[in-house]
Amino acid sequence: MPPPDPAFQETNLRTTQIRDLGLKIEGTRLEPIIREFQAEIDKLAVPSLKPRFYLSTEWGVAFGSISIAIPFYLAKPELEQIQAEQVGHIEGVSKADILRYLRHEMGHVVNYGFRLYEQQDWVKLFGSITQPYIEDYNKQPFSRRFVRHLPGWYAQKHPDEDWAETFAVWMTPGQDWRKTYEKWATALAKLHYTDRIMTELRNREPLVKIEERDEDVGEIAYSIQDFYSRLRLGEDELPPGLEGALTAIFEDLGTAEDSSDATRKPASTLIRRMERDLVANVYRWTGHFPERTRPLVRYLAERADALKQVYPANRETDATLAITTLVTALAMNHVHRGTYLP
Questions:
Q1: Which helix H or strand E contains 36, and what residues bound it?
Q2: Of 199, 177, 178, 174, residue with least CA distance to 110
Q3: Which long-range contacts (CB under 8 A, 24 or more apart) does 151-154 make?
Q4: pLDDT per residue over 260-300, tens digit each?
Q5: Is 61 helix (H, G, I), strand (E, B) or coil?
Q6: Which residues form the domain of 271?
Q7: CATH code for position 79
Q8: Do 154 and 78 share a structural domain?
Q9: pLDDT tens-digit profile of 43-82?
Q10: Among 164, 195, 225, where does a domain finish?
Q11: What is the C-alpha radius of gyration for the chain, rounded to an integer number of angstroms?
């Protein structure tokens, strides 16, 4: 038998250039999921529009192309673990989650393949494709002007994303979008447009068939370690002065000197254990980016250690709720004001 591929030994996985890792979709858990997704595409009855799939640094479709990029870390469990360690959030944990992202990216493929963004009706509903693309976009949670699909109220980011999210909802099997959005007039109008335009496109040839690939893994000349070192993790934005909030939480639950017989547990351990779920759920419901929430949660754990905060073991649910509320409130402040504390 041939020796194991040294590229995936723990000793050099992080330092090997990504292009030398031999990453591919074939033979991974992604392959059957993509086959299932292609069956969904076939039901759209636009046989002439066939996206190509490849591994890159993130989900996406290069403007004016019909190729769908999938994050390279989804190709190997070892890489998923590194992504979780470094960012605290994985975009595509389960099959359902991966399909959710694929449907969104297919919206971009349809938009670019048929140049829908040039049509007057599209512009009236979604806005101009030339609108500035801003990473720190303003979110209005539960706005009835937009559908809900990806976390972070992503449809509100840009007209192109608004369309892609609307398309994804329309495309999702078993999604009764007429009922779900029946009282959301603007979002429903966008879905009706999607339903109508997809009917019109069924027997048309796409105007664009370019399969451009942006940062294909086979061409990336830097390492996994370099990739994560370039990400902005947000440590420079951590808010000072949270000791009072932490102290209030755990004083309310009972200090180590209280007469209760319940075992005391370190608050920092609980906060660290909550990190992954907090990062994902805060992003979903507030739009506060995972790369910011993760260092915030770790900072709170460090302060809890320094303050020697503990809580009664029989009140862990209360402690979890209080910490979640604190992090969510801080995240909402940052989303709407650009800062955690006034």
A1: helix 30-43
A2: 199
A3: 151/280, 151/283, 151/284, 151/285, 152/283, 152/284, 152/286, 152/287, 152/289, 153/287, 154/104
A4: 667 889 999 999 999 989 999 999 999 888 888 988 999 99
A5: coil
A6: 234-337
A7: 3.40.390
A8: yes
A9: 886 878 889 999 999 999 999 999 999 999 999 999 999 9
A10: 225
A11: 23
